[in-house]
Input
Amino acid sequence: MIPPSLTRRPAPLLPALLMQAIFAVSCPATAKDADPSLAALSCLGCHTGDEDGSELYALDRIGARMIAAELRAYRAGTRQGTVMNRIAGGLDDGEIEGIARFLGEPQ
Amino acid sequence: MNARRRFLRVLAMSGLTLGLDACVSSRYLRGTSPGRVVVIGGGYGGVTAARYLKLMDPWLSVTLVEPRDTYLSCPGSNEVIAGIAELSMLERPYAAVCGRLGIDKVNAAAIRLDRMRRRVILADGTEIPYDRMILSPGINFRWNAIPGYDEAASHTIPHAWKAGPQTDLLARQLRTMPDGGLVVVTAPANPYRCPPGPYERASLIAWYLKCHKPRSKILVLDAKTRFSKQPAFERAWRDLYPGMIDWVSSEKQGRLERVDIRNRSVETEFDSFKADVLNVIPPQKAGALAEQSGLTDESGWCPVDPLSFVSSLDPAIHIIGDACQAAPMPKSAFSANSQAKVCAAAVVSILAGERPPEPLLINHCYSFVAAEEAISISGVYAYSAAEKQLTSRSGGETPPASDRRREAVYAKAWQRNFRAGVFGG
Ligand SMILES: Cc1cc2nc3c(=O)[nH]c(=O)nc-3n(C[C@H](O)[C@H](O)[C@H](O)COP(=O)(O)OP(=O)(O)OC[C@H]3O[C@@H](n4cnc5c(N)ncnc54)[C@H](O)[C@@H]3O)c2cc1C
Output
């Protein structure tokens, strides 16, 4: 059975993101079928945790639920990072859940 | 934790290894596909692809064809030019990753492909058969696209766009130039390897000159009218190196007409500039093997379907990294790494007789503007089945007023983690 979170439609992007409008152009996601595990593998381009990268969190030590919550906060602009707002802006709810489940420590 | 244990743990924890029918699109993770995959080119694209093929399916036969024993990373090489890093810090052996993951490394260049018989031919005549091939040969230069600038000229006027002796040559020339001298950097038209790279280079050369030869100046002659992360770069130049870097758009100076190696000078349509140090970053195309094998189109790059990065010109060959056309993704090590993972999953799926999973890709690149300051650009890319192309989902770059010191901390961590994630055992 496909978890409902993987099939849910993307939420509209929140106005807080407009703060970044000039330097972070975000358009609502259109594709619904992307495999979140592939996006998760790209996340490992920074978050490998194989060497001491304490500044870039090794995601396997963070709970899946926490990762999903952080990604949603970045997307909404309620949490300000450097690059994560730009990246989270391109993910729909299902992708956020899928990525978090793939990379995070399960609960 | 080593990469394989980590990867398998990740899979186990994500629940994707069990009940895979539930997760239709992640079937590539089942890992039971018979087949021989040959990867050509041991750069960021090729090594990541070989690594992930084995992580996804340890039973697959994976051969990596690459003539060198160690790889020299271009990311980080502008720091070497500025004297912030040593070239040796950028070197990574293939032995660790290949040994640990069971990748067969062939220490030779592929000189030819027999596409009909699906064989890779080496210089000594050895033939390596493949069911699927992943090609990541990087770039080749368009010698003489700028009259006067050919391969021989690069021995005195470096491009330094492949890390190695070229990087050292440019660094040495900067060390010996007089204070008050002029450094000229020429930047090519799009597309080319590492779009923000020439401006990172100008910034870090300025950083070096400010410390050691503060009366010197830098002129960037661009074949473009704007460039990657321009507002953030220009702000950093005003803040850190006022009056030192002069960027000249092609609107002002027109084409580069000629490089004169004897005089160390360049001519544009309207002017001529004599440099103390001249760095010509020439226009580029896909690596030579791709071109010779008929895998490029009139653009000089390799057309692919980014669902699987399969060549539009050969159904058994996938092309990733700088050599492929994956616009709007820029040609970067991060892109090559993201593409390699998508491609590995696709190859495993195809060998199992299944449709590749639909990709979502990421690019994220830092540029240093000083030893301890950096800016960045990022993008998320989805697949459009209708157009068989990538489309930009979201993205952005560092705004002009930003915390560049914080980004430099991340940029250094990225370089460390990224190299370990590709070349680590
Ligand atoms: C100055 C500079 C700074 C950069 N900074 C960054 C950065 O900060 N971040 C970033 O993401 N990117 C950066 N890049 C870009 C990055 O280096 C490239 O995008 C990346 O290396 C592309 O990987 P690739 O696998 O396509 O090619 P490469 O890494 O060039 O690898 C190609 C490999 O193929 C081998 N090869 C070629 N032909 C054959 C053959 N016939 N047989 C066998 N082997 C062959 C070569 O020996 C080589 O090892 C930078 C580039 C430069 C020049």
About this structure: Confidence is low (pLDDT under 50) at residues 12-25 of chain B.
